[in-house]
Amino acid sequence: MATWNCRGAGGRLFSRMIKEIVIKYGINVLCLVETRISGLRADKMVRKSGFTNWIRVEASGFAGGIWVLWKDNEVGINYICSNTQMIHCQIHDRPKKEKFYATFVYGETMAYRRIELWESLKVISNATTEPWVIVGDFNTFLTPSDKLGGAAPILPALQHFASCISESQLVELPVVGEKFTWEKQGVKERLDWAFSNVEWALKFPQSKAAHGMKFKSDHRIVLVSNHINTPTDRPRERSFRYQSAWEDASNWNNSVVGSIPQKKRQILRRLEGIDKARQDKLSSGFYRLEKKLWKDYVKLAAQEELLWFQKSRCNWLQWGDKNTRFFHASTVIRRRQQHIETLQNDDGRWVTDHSEMMHMATLYYKKLYTKDDQVSESLNWLAEFPSLSTQDIYFIHKELNMVEIKNAAFMMGAFKAPGPDGLQPHFF
């Protein structure tokens, strides 16, 4: 289970980033706050993110928004109540056969507006006798030490938050990673929190709140889990094929392009290293490097999407409806359809042995393209062909110019099958 202030869910590559976050951390329930989109646009983005169900508090214009997303085959969620600052529900973890209550929070930025949130949490606390966890962006601190740099915190706002936690008899989950969850222009704050009631603490004594990476947001993702999963798959070597995502023609496959997923993992590792270094030392150099690496990451994500579009050859899909998972599936299906399982030899016997089929195919094409001595080189045509005019003869013998070659190349399907050199028309 995780929560993240994503600061807008309408970006073109946002759904791809969500999929990678889910894989990286093994998330089964994800709450996104400050999504800034709603309605049909929000429905489309959720579906593209790979989740099968969701509960939403819609954004007001371009502000706010709380989404709780999950996959039905892993968890079941029963909605209980909500307001503009929280969603309260019951979660059923199907594999572990466990049930508990969860409240996902996105507190208002103005202190007086958060009073409604504090009162709601107190009411839920009085009515809850089963394990309960509260996680999200509260937009406030518990103590002055929860802010580093900038103006001093407003003490009355802190006191209201602390009173709510105390009266609701909540305990803070132990934190793994950097203490501060928000950072901008040298100021660090802890705005994202995870609490539980005593029943949760007794049932899940090993629970912790891991503060993950920011993933191109000002806020870190907060994960409530006993184990944080990381991808362990290793990239497979593939034969050379020109890919339209490549931008340099020097040592394409190995030294320049390489494996896009591997490069993305390398960037994430560098970002994690920078993130750890910045916890000990504030540096504008680290900030600039982090910004550059995120820009490179987004570029690689776009290239990966283009790569799978090219491989899938689904020209009927519009670029506005890109879905890499579909592209990947269609590529696998196409490759299976192209795989030759058996061949029939000259005796009518079906051959399934791979080496024997290769030998049969080689002999077939050698025979096909070998000169047949029994065929006469002279052709005795009964009909006469019309003669060519002087103008036609001149046109045939006219040298080709670069414009004609370019026009012919651009009339070809950009992502059609490559030639023996692995280059598709898009390259030319």
Description:
The chain has 12 helices and 18 strands. The chain is an alpha+beta fold and 428 residues long. The chain has 3 domains: 2-225, Deoxyribonuclease I, Chain A; 252-336, no CATH class; 344-372, no CATH class. The protein is elongated and about 105 Å long. Residues 227-236 and 315-322 have low confidence and may be disordered. Strand 6 (86-93) and strand 7 form a beta hairpin. The longest helix has 29 residues, at 284-312.
Question: Strands, helices and their partners?
Answer:
Blueprint: E1 2-5, H1 14-25, E2 29-33, H2 39-48, E3 53-57, E4 66-70, E5 75-83, E6 86-93, E7 98-106, H3 115-127, E8 132-137, E9 147-148, H4 155-167, E10 171-172, E11 175-176, E12 182-184, E13 187-189, E14 192-196, H5 198-203, E15 208-211, E16 222-225, H6 252-257, H7 260-280, H8 284-312, H9 324-338, E17 343-344, E18 350-351, H10 354-368, H11 390-397, H12 402-410
Parallel strand pairs: 1-2, 7-8, 11-15
Antiparallel strand pairs: 1-16, 2-4, 3-4, 5-6, 6-7, 8-14, 9-13, 10-14, 12-13, 15-16, 17-18
